[in-house]
Amino acid sequence: MSAPLNPPTPPDSRVLLHQQGEGLRVEVQGTWRITETRPSWPALIAEQAPARVKLVWGRLADWDSALLLFVFEVRQWCRAKGAPCDFADLPEALQKLLHQLEVVNETRMPVDRSRDFLSMVGFAAQDVWAKTKEIATFVGECVISATGLLKKPHKFRWRDCLDEMQQCGAMALPIVSLISLLTGLIMAYQSAVLMRQFGADIYVADAVGLVMVREMGAMMTAIILAGRTGAAFAATLGNMRAGEEIDALQTLGIRPVDFLVLPRLVALGVMMPLLALYANSLGILGGMLVSRGVLDIPPSAYWVETLTAIDLSDISTGLIKASAFGLLVGLAGCHCGLRAERSAAGVGRATTSAVVMGLLLIIVADALFAVTFNILGW
After folding, report:
1. d(Cα 295, Cα 348) in Å, to the nearest integer?
2. Are 230 and 221 in contact (CB under 8 A)?
3. Is the pLDDT of residue 117 over 80?
4. Which pTM does this prediction carry?
5. Is 143 exposed, middle or buried (0-12, 13-18, 19+ CB in 10 A)?
6. Measured between alpha carbons, how far is 173 from 46 in angstroms, rounded to an integer?
């Protein structure tokens, strides 16, 4: 037997390397403890590249998982180098533990999850289709609940609906007032720049009145409620889902859509047109203030010109949009809340999704309304 090629190792755990032709014989000796320093196989093998490795059982006093980890290092190195590794001389118990460690390691190995373009498109299409089915199912449940409300209005939770009206209506007046007034001011200033070039300052009233009544009043109010009320709906229902309150309702035979969703939808559908009318009034008031201060147009003349530009069809157009936007904001908030994950992070994600979905639905619905009203000649 040739002389051992041994780098210095700790005295309690020893590894003897014996060159045997193109192969390497590895003998483990001493006491192996996980709490003590153990030899490192990469340091022991250094620059050597044996064609095969054989581990043998030497004079071992005692061993634990430290020896198992060392043998596992040898096995991994042999696999990486493509060298055969013989563990037949090791105890059967150690071989079983080594096999279990290899199985666990293989299951935790990172998997290449990169996808090509077509796969990404396919998975995205599947995700969109699944979410579309969820939304369609939720809308269908809401329609069924609304039908039940028309048939049996005495079973509707009117007190909850009135509470939600106060929260999404009266409590939203300050922010709606500020945003609507500033919107009217901005629109009047921008219109004045254009109208002055043609000496048509009075038509600022027409521009502000028509845009506020037909578009901006309902749009700005819906955006405000999407960030305020829609997020509140999602957070409330998400917390109830995380606290298993919704599961308790289902256990009692109470449909969550009837008990939680419908009162909120009715509240938003009723209050949105009222808030839109209020926003229209403040927007026109903001334009009137700018016209009086910048263009020297008397408030009476401004008001008369506004009345000549706006008719009932313009007001009804804005109210139809406002009602639809309110229902969409409520649907987005309640849907995301009921589908929230049962954790604090899930509630936060549901709240964000409710705002994003509400804004997206508002923009898409507004575009559809614009095309529809143009075809109808409104």
Report:
1. 48
2. no
3. no
4. 0.66
5. exposed
6. 76
